[in-house]
Specification:
12 helices; mainly alpha
């Protein structure tokens, strides 16, 4: 039999495949543009606050922000036994930061890192367990630093002023209801319960393997402590740059308390919720409302908005190069 070639398209053009990967590379930039338009007033006000700031302290905030990606890379490597390529791992954390600000509840960073580990040859079960271990370590590190500062400065923060009045009981009831529903689903759906138990076994096995290697354990827990500490240091440096009349340790305490309080809010990168919580927390440690607002807006410009475009370009390049 003789193969019959397909008929030519009108105008003599040959059929071409849709460049899906090239289109995907442009998606992060499009999402950054949408976010910038939606929050243009915050951007304008934050940039205005930076004009009167002390530049040495702003440079210190920028340096601390850059080091957070290094800390994240250490923690990611510490959560998996298999060695990951260092340069690509660091670039992936920078790109994952942008994805995290564009998708809710850390989904962006998790998806980028899962894809990166899959490309590096890490099986899905192990990469999922590594992601869960990273989240647990990051939570323990943040809450551990917060507890240490609360013990060292017990009167610095009025915790009752962080949540809105009367919000504690609904939050507790909602958490109890969600826990009850999750327990009921696991009890009734046998297949789901089996998969959850299998994942728990894989995760515990991966955690034991990681902690048998001192270098991995040091990277995991050292990075998980350094990451929130560097974020708090960046806020403290911005506060010093704008001459906020609050001690540095109290500003760090305010940052850790605010970010712990909004960790369950499913907004992209905490946009909106983090700003509000940080302002309330800085006021709770003795800062004036106007000064706290200025510090938070300038801080979010440095740590969120400035890295968004280069982070989106890096993410697009990693997609194009099939790193993620």
């Amino acid at each position: 039999m003789t193969a019959v070639p397909p008929p030519p398209l009108p105008g003599g053009r040959l059929p071409r495949r849709v460049p899906v990967r090239r289109v995907v590379c442009l998606v992060p930039l499009a999402l950054v543009a949408v976010a910038a338009v939606r929050h243009r007033s915050v951007l304008a006000e934050g940039l205005g606050q930076l004009r009167t700031a002390s530049w040495p302290w702003l440079l210190a905030a920028v340096a601390a922000t850059c080091l957070t990606w290094v800390a994240a890379a250490f923690t990611r490597q510490g959560a998996v036994v298999q060695p990951l390529p260092r340069g690509r791992l660091l670039a992936t954390q920078f790109a994952a930061g942008t994805a995290n600000h564009l998708l809710p509840s850390g989904l962006g960073a998790g998806a980028v890192n899962l894809r990166f580990m899959a490309v590096c040859g890490v099986p899905l079960a192990r990469s999922s367990a590594a992601l869960a271990l990273y989240l647990v370590a990051e939570c323990v590190g943040r809450l551990g630093l917060l507890a240490a500062l609360l013990i060292a400065f017990p009167d610095a923060l009025r915790l009752g002023s962080l949540p809105p009045a009367g919000s504690a009981l609904p939050v507790l009831l909602g958490a109890a209801a969600l826990s009850a529903v999750a327990a009921a689903v696991l009890a009734l759906v046998t297949r789901l319960r089996a998969r959850v138990l299998a994942f728990a076994r894989d995760a515990l096995g991966e955690a034991r393997s990681v902690h048998r290697r001192p270098a991995r354990a040091l990277a995991l827990w050292g990075g998980s402590l350094a990451f929130p500490a560097l974020q708090a240091a960046a806020l403290t440096a911005v506060g010093q740059a704008l001459r906020l009349p609050v001690p540095a340790a109290h500003m760090a305490l305010a940052y850790l308390a605010a970010t712990a309080a909004v960790a369950v809010v499913p907004t992209p990168g905490g946009l909106g919720s983090v700003e509000a919580a940080l302002i309330v927390a800085l006021v709770a440690v003795g800062g004036p409302v106007a000064g706290a607002t200025a510090v938070v807006l300038a801080y979010r410009i440095i740590t969120v908005w400035v890295p968004l475009v280069p982070g989106a370009l890096t993410l697009g390049a990693l997609v194009r190069l099939k790193v993620v």
